[in-house]
Amino acid sequence: MNDDNVEAPPMADPPQTESWIFAHFLKLFGIPNQQHSDAVEYCTSWKWALSITDQTGAHDFLKYREAFDNYKVGDMEVSGELSNICEHEQYLMLRDENKALLEQISALKEEVQKLKDQKKENEKEKSFLITEKLIEKTKVCEALNERNAKLVKDLRIQAAVDDCNTSLSLDLAKKTKECQVLNEQKIKLVEDLRIKIGVDASNASLALELRREYKLLQDINAKLADQSEIQHPAPVPVNV
Fold it and tell me: Per the database entry, which stretches of residues form a coiled coil (predicted)?
């Protein structure tokens, strides 16, 4: 494990106990087949011949010839650690690839961290904007609720006023009818009063006339009485 907690790829496996030649060049043209007994093989010598290249025309062996010329194989068992140029080149290649991969991974980690930080910042900013909008919407909703409550109250008051107006309208209609009846009665009373006033005036005039006639009759009666006394004097009583 490295500092970035990235596991490095595994290195090449150490050589096995089987023949190194057959292990690496078993599938190439011109190499004899491996024994079928799975027994441990021993490589004591190896010799290049032109017949292999001439027969197969495989030029793939040429790139390994120089490495084998520099590598001396003795009478020994192929086991444990066996140094060779191919494995060293493979190790260097894997090391370089591993280093490049680690650098790429480190760069990717930095980029991912930057993206995470940017995402957090964006989410924080987005959350802040959402919170601001939510607060604004909450205030608007509260204002609307207050306005709605006021409208409901006004509607209730209006309904009560309408009910009161309806009741007052009925009472007004009733009182209007009563007033009409009273006005008719008043008109009739006024006419009766006028008639009575006229009758009273006529009665007063008749009474005055009657008083005059009565006085005249009294005067006539008095005169008649005087004339009667003159014409018929009172008899003188006779003394016996």
Answer: 91-132
Is 24 part of any domain? yes
b/e per residue, 118-131, with b = 16+ CB within 10 A? eeeeeeeeeeeeee
Alpha-carbon distances of 97 from 7, 8, 90, 109, rounded to whole Å? 13, 10, 10, 18
Q: How far is 107 from 113, CA to CA, in rounded Å?
A: 10
Q: What is the DSSP annotation of 96-150? A: HHHHHHHHHHHHHHHHHHHHHHHHHHHHHHHHHHHHHHHHHHHHHHHHHHHHHHH
Evaluate whether residue 185 is within a structural domain.
no
141-158 confidence digits (pLDDT tens): 999 999 999 999 999 999
Structural domain span for residue 33: 18-78
Does residue 67 belong to any structural domain of this protein?
yes
Q: At what angle do helices 62-70 and 85-231 cross, to 10 degrees?
A: 120
| Amino acid at the residue 159 | A
Question: pLDDT tens across 180-223, in order?
Answer: 999 999 899 999 888 888 888 888 888 888 888 888 888 888 88
Q: Is residue 43 part of a domain?
A: yes
**Predicted TM-score (pTM) of this structure:** 0.32
- Alpha carbons 30 and 233: distance in angstroms, whole number: 216
Our count of domains for the chain comes to: 1
